Amino acid sequence: MIRYRKDTSLLPFNTFGIDVKADHLFHLRDRGELAEILAHPAFRIVSEDMSNMLILGQGSNILLTHDYSGVVIRNEIEGIRLLEENEDYVVLEAGAGVIWQDMVAYAVSRNLAGIENLTLIPGTVGAAPVQNIGAYGVEAAGVIVSVTGFHFATRGWLTLDNKECRFGYRDSIFKHELRNRMLITSVVLKLSKVLRPQLGYGGIREALAERNITHPSLMDISDAVARIRRAKLPDPATLGNAGSFFKNPVVGEKELETLQRSFPGIRYFRQDELYKIPAGWLIEQAGWKGHRHGDAGCYDRQALVLVNYGSATGEEILHLAEEIKRSVYERFGINIEAEVNII
After folding, report:
1. 170 flagged as catalytic
2. Choosing from 60, 186, 222, 244, which is the catalytic residue?
C-alpha cells in the first residue's frame, strides 16, 4: 500500500530546513506504486500542465518559499544492479531514490572510476541528471548512459540516452521540456575499471601532496575531495543549506578582457572557448561573505552558499539571494543565476 499524507510539513524533506506544508504528499518506493498514486483521489487535482506537482528526492537543491498547494511525490526508489561488465568497465542501474553519496561509496569501494570527484554532493541519483551535477572537473553527464522514467502526459515509460538528455552546465532536458513531466525512476551509469584521475581542479592535487600521495587510488581522491568540501561547505544536517546557491557565470574572451581591465585580480578558468568566473569570488568581492540578516545568511567560509541559521523562511533566504544578485551586477555587470530550484 502506498504511503500518503495530507496537509503535512516538508521540513524533513528539504536540506534548507524550511517548514512549509504540502497539501498532498506521496512516498514512492517502487515504480509499481505509480499506478496507485495516479489512481488516488488526491492526484486528480494535478493540472494538465503538471504545474502543481513537485517531485522531491533529498530536497538538497530546492528553496521552498511557501506552502505547496498541490501534490508532492517523494522519490524513494532504491537499488543498484549490475547490467554489464567486461575487463574495462561496468554498467550499473541505480534507483532514483538512492542517495548519491551511497552511489559514490559503492563505486569507490569496488574500484570503479568516474564519480569519485563527485564525493559528498548531496542529493539522490535521480536528481543527478536533472542538474547534471558536477564538481572538480567532472560532471554526471560523463558517466550517464541513459535515464528512465514515467512520462505523465503519455502515461507511459520513457528512456532517454545521454544525447537525448541534452546535458549542459548544470542543465538538462529535465529542467526544460520534461520539467515535472517525467518522474525519473532509474539511471544507468557506465563506470571504468581503469583510473584516469582528474586532479587539476579545486586543490585536489595539493590536498594529496599534503599527505605525500603521488599515485592516488580512487579512495585517496574521494577522501581528498571529502576533506576539501568539509573544510569549506556546511553540513546540511547541522546548518540548513542547499550547497552552491548560484551558478558560475560564463563569459566570452572579449567580455573577460573588459573585466580584467576594470578588475585586474578577477579569477577565472577556461571551459572550451569560454571562461567561468567563480560566483563565490564575485559575491565575496561584493562584500557578502559572512553577512547575516536574521537567520538568513551568506556562509562565512564560502560565499557561494546561503544558509539558514535556524528559523529563516524561504522568502527571507530568497530576498537575501536577490540582494546579492543585484549587488554583484551593480559592481561587475555580471548577472549570476540561481542554481537552486526556487518553488
Report:
1. yes
2. 244
